[in-house]
Amino acid sequence: MQNIWGSRTESGLNADEFRDEVALHLMRNLGEPHTAFSDQDGWAGKSKEPGPPIDVLVVPPEGERRFAYVCTMGCALKRNGDKTRMEFVMAAPQTGEAKEDLARLNLAANTVRQFAKLVHIQPVRVTPGETVQFSANPKPMFEGSKQLGFAFATPRLPNDSFQAMKLQGGEAVTFVAPIPIYRSELQYGRTKGPRALNKALTKAGVTEMLDIHRKPVKRSFLGMLASLFGQR
To answer: What DSSP assignment string belongs to 39-80?
Structure first.
């Protein structure tokens, strides 16, 4: 397989070596990964999408763990605008219904892949509680859901040691989870700050598990009035 940035990248590893490091990290903390998406055009230097070529690895559900875990591979081979190295992760519930399971897996994989590209294209602050919206007046992103933005969070589903991975020379790769959020949560983060939003999401038990129907941890004034009068 060809390398993304030549025989050696600034990380000190070529693409195959870095893939092995990420795969081993996933295996130690969660399970054996497989490649769910290979950015073949990007690896060949022909990708029409902006940003670096990104592969997505997936750890399938196993035993009592009824979710697949997706993780990007390639973002951290080059530092982003904040001069840090990171990869993005999400969990996709798997219930045994093939069509629904595949849809959730594809949604999670595409989400992390796009963020892995975005941080190399635009100045995005990727720390817990920081939020992203894709327009001045964002609209719901998913069919049947009112979620319209994302908040970044520390992964919580794997072992605690998963959050960062050391490269040769001691440099760290951080794993980040983009969590879909509601307008009220987006506004809360804007007014109270990233730490307050991250604390509220963590306290409510929100993780990197894809859940487009979860209840908002912070409701708007109009939402609270609707609840009082029995409206959804």
So the answer is: -HHHHTT---SSS---EEEEE--BTTB-EEEEEEESGGGS--
How far is Cα 127 from Cα 226, in angstroms, rounded to an integer?
33
Cβ count near 60 (within 10 Å): 15
**Placement of tokens 């007014």 in the chain:** 191
Q: Which of 12, 13, 35, 14 is nearest to 23 (CA)?
A: 35
**How much is the pTM?**
0.86
The residue type at 162 = F
C-alpha span between 188 and 203 (Å, rounded):
15
Q: Which two tokens stand for residue 94?
A: 């798997």
Rounded mean pLDDT, 93-114: 94
Note whether 17 and 24 are within 8 A (CB). no
Boundaries of every domain in the chain: 15-228
Report how far residue 165's alpha carbon sits from residue 24's, in angstroms, rounded to the nearest whole number.
10
Q: Residues 19, 26: contact at Cβ < 8 Å? A: no
> What kind and span of H or E run contains 152?
strand 149-153
Distance CA 212, CA 141 (A): 10
pLDDT computed for residue 38 by the predictor? 79
